[in-house]
Amino acid sequence: MESITIKVEDNLAKEINRAMKNGYTTKTEFIREAVRDKLNEIKKEDVLEELKEYFGKAKVGTTYEKEREIRDKVGREFAKKFGINLD
Fold it and tell me: pTM for the complete prediction?
């Protein structure tokens, strides 16, 4: 495991301490989870951007229901590709 040292403003440190009262035992645990959440958010944004490239390119008309089914399938495939858990 790699060690990373950070410095934060006093106000941010106080906010972290307040937020930790909701089930976190250490600042390290809180910050690790916050970083994981941010990385997952970035992955989701990347998937959505990649998905936008394909949106609206079909030349064949489809029903709304079929379109939703296809979007769901493609979304799950992209999420799996980028390691994002949708459940």
Answer: 0.56
